[in-house]
Amino acid sequence: MTQTTIQDQPIPIEEEMRQSYLDYAMSVIVSRALPDVRDGLKPVHRRILYAMRQAGLTHEKPFRKSATIVGEVLGKYHPHGDSSVYDALVRMAQDFNLRYPLVDGHGNFGSVDGDPPAAYRYTEARMSRLAGELLEDLDKETINFRPNFDNSLKEPEVLPASLPNLLINGSAGIAVGMATNIPPHNLGEVTDAIVKLIEEPETDIEALMKYVPAPDFPTGGMIMGLSGARKAFQEGRGSITIRGVTAIEERKGKRLAIIITEIPYQVNKARLVEQIAEAVKAKRITGVTDLRDESDRRGMRVVIELAANSTPQLTLNQLYKHSDLQVNFGVNTLALVDGVPRTLNLKECLTHYLAHRKQVVTRRCEFDLKKAQERAHILEGLQIALDNLDAVIETIRKSQNVEEARAALCLRFKLSVPQAQAILEMRLQRLTGLERKKIQEEYANLIKTIAHLQDLLASERRIMFLIRDELLEMRKKYADPRKSRIMKEEAEGFVIEDLIPDEETVITISSSGYVKRMPEGTYRSQRRGGKGVVGMGLKDEDSLEHVLFTTTHHNLFFFTSKARVYRLKAYEIAETAGRQAKGTAIVNLLPLESGEKVAAIIPMKDKDLGSEELFLVMATRHGMINKTAIAEYKNIFKAGLIACILNEDDGLIGVRLTSGDKEVFLVTRNGQSIRFPEDKVRATGRRTKGVIGMRLRTGDEVVAMAHLETGSELLVVTANGYGKRTAHKEYRLQSRGGVGIKTLNVTKKTGQVVDAKVVEPEDELLLTTAMGNLIRISVKGISTQGRATQGVMLIRLEEGDSVSDVGHLSKKDIATEETE
User: Fold this and answer.
1) pLDDT tens digit string along 777-786?
2) Candidate list 122, 353, 478, 514, residue with the active-site label
């Protein structure tokens, strides 16, 4: 074992490393990163305020160079780098970081845009008036002092803290293995809660939240609902959603603009504007024509001008989603209690602060009582001297020196040494009648003061009511209106789509990953055999892969080739102005990995989410089938969910929403098909491989999955634009796992099978080609044929072009949507 030697004592290096790391960790936790629950300060902040007080830099005194303060703190109390001290000093002066700044700064102390402060040789500072309250009564033995780093001076272990600084200003810090993130609160609200706790110590957290409903951030903003704050107050941890404050303003030409007047706490305004600009460029935020920052010393004003026909609420929703105009503040109320880090709820924070104030006020009263008693004792001696003035003078005159005079006075008049010394030091002017009266009045007042202090110290309840009265006085001096607005619970349930028309729409995705949304009427219906129209402006070697008919309010589940699933609302995909628009790169909407492509899109209504009676059936290229309850996909994270487990080299090719009692139909590229009951596929969880649905011949693979119903027909489309309808009765019911039967006679003329759909005569199709052409045709115009036939021409293709996707518009589904 490797060893090291310290003072000739061998120590295992593992033990030395362990002990040294623990010492370092505890030093960071206790002496650097975490605030004390009593005064809400970390050591560096406490030392800065104490050094400023000792240097006389109170709020009514002139400013002094920050360099002087930094040097004072470094030289006497804080043996670390100057940047650590100056950064802490700067933060205490920033009104966008602290709800109630503790330092009054003069000069450039940084900005909400992230601009750094000027060097400490240029700025000046002094304590704020409120900071003075944290150090009030420091000289009355109210707290303990400890030696500084070189034992040359004393520094306070904690400040008396007449105000609950931990809650009103919050704190943030990262220690070893732990971190704290406490939001600021409104002083008036916190004071009211403490007063309630003093008057009724059994008050619970729910009752305290009537006084402190949520944090109050210095930059304002809107707190979206109280559930996050309630959890943080009850458990010490929680997440609070904050939104910036916006207004809709009408501009010239009846155009509208979104005006941002407040931003969430700790959001960099300049970075926010950059984020918005980047999201607009990437088309994650739509309808924006201009963006500029018009903020000045009068207030914040970021202007987002909108296009003529855009919907401001939709753009706002995109701003909340794709920028820091809406953020989550993670609350972690971790503070030092008796030197030990603890996660605290709201009541514990207030209780520990009250215990500290009780100790401070008690020690202050004891100090004042001691001083009053000492002064009363002296005054009693002076009164004895004045009553026996001639004898006192005679005694002093007979004495040879001060010591003899003091001893003689003590002996003759039964005085204490301090009383005799006070008599010897008494000036002749105190012998006048007026001065004698002042001594008598002072003594009478002291007797009252002593009685009052003794009365206070004899009753804990009286001490607590004194704390209450002092807090109410602080409230009167420093309380201000709440800055952060709280959105009511009913507003928390506000859904932006309520402002967006529920209209039929078409979603298309190209093979290179561009997605767009267009009105359903963009493509007029044509006769079978036409050439179609240009559907999307495509790059070279790009092609259309997916076409989906849906409505703007549907949830869209995007299943990828790597068997992951993501969710968007249809209206979150930007609507394009025309058919030839390229659209938005889907990677700007979904966090797809390299090489990951969309394999299927499933539209779903809100009421179906979480249903225990609906299932998603998935098929892979190698013929595997997986069935999972839709409830498994109720909560999809931004990073997506695993939809199923794939075998190596396999990929997802189709997903269908089903009630679980239909029939599954698989179709292969070479024209084979199989029909089997869906109930033969057992429902499993997401993280499973499923079961074999169809065994494939060499070189073949599954290209489509459908669900057959009685009376429906199967429509098969080939790469060269041929297709046909075949009645479902032509396909006999088989057992799962077979090789199937022929569904289309694949030839060189027809090309291989591209897709298959279950259709009815009233339905329509949208055929998309690799070159970007689309044709919308009625199903009733496609002839019904047997299984082993080639079909008829559906679209006339140009040389080198081929069918890439088949979109299906079911009029039955649309009619159902309209009647609900």
Assistant:
1) 888 888 888 8
2) 122
